[in-house]
Amino acid sequence: MPELIPTPLLGAFDLLGVAVFALSGALVAAREKQTFVTMAFFALVTGVGGGTVRDLLIGIPAFWARDPWIAPVCLIVALLVWFTPTRWWERKVLDYTDAVGLTAYAVLGTAKAIAYGIAPVPAVLMGVITGTVGGVIRDVIAGRPSILMRPEMYVTAAFVSASGCAIGLYFDWPRVPVWIGATAAGLALRWAAIRWSLVLPPYSRNQ
């Protein structure tokens, strides 16, 4: 079975995605006035949730169980939030940084799925899962409405990055430019959606 060849860029994508999503999970716990144990749990579950589901679908051990850095990164992020006031983390700032993790993780998930022999279309879906499921798990546990239930261009941005990655790898284009370009494309869409409140049209057909 093929392995995803590790590179510094993919390693950075991995830690970046984990850290950003761990931050969003820890902040949810902070706003709910939870204990540090709960905050660390939220950081870990949100940080690794999407990648864990992806690895289970591929049929391989969860990535964070073999990487010595993932759990410590989540714990460090939880400590950072615990010792800083929530006003430091403005909602828009978190949204913009979350977009970076979302798109980088979507590219990483797609590249990993393709490396394990997954066809391009399912690989794109695994990329979307990698980028979004951690946040869904966080919201479900916290009892909050998931971002999936709002018409924001969130999953769409992950899909753009994942699709760009799959297309580039399918045509055997240079990997690093493909990864960077795919991430940038989804990131530009997500940031534009945040900046100008762009949304997808909701279903409105009468029954």
Describe, in plain words, how this protein is organized in 3D.
- The chain has helices at 8-31, 36-58, 63-66, 70-82, 91-115, 120-142, 155-170, 175-196.
- With 207 residues, it is mainly alpha-helical.
- The protein has one domain (8-196).
- Helix 1 (8-31) packs parallel to helix 4 (70-82), helix 1 (8-31) packs across helix 5 (91-115) and helix 6 runs antiparallel to helix 7.
- The protein is globular, with a radius of gyration of 17 Å.
- It starts with 7 loop residues before the first helix and ends in an 11-residue tail after the last helix.
- The chain crosses the membrane at residues 12-29, 41-63, 69-88, 124-141, 153-171, 177-198.
- Belongs to the UPF0126 family.
- Residues 13-84, 97-163 form the Glycine transporter domain.
SSE blueprint:
Elements: H1 8-31, H2 36-58, H3 63-66, H4 70-82, H5 91-115, H6 120-142, H7 155-170, H8 175-196
Summarize this entry quickly.
With 207 residues, the protein is mainly alpha-helical. It is built from 8 helices and no strands. It has one domain.
State the main characteristics.
single chain; mainly alpha; 207 residues
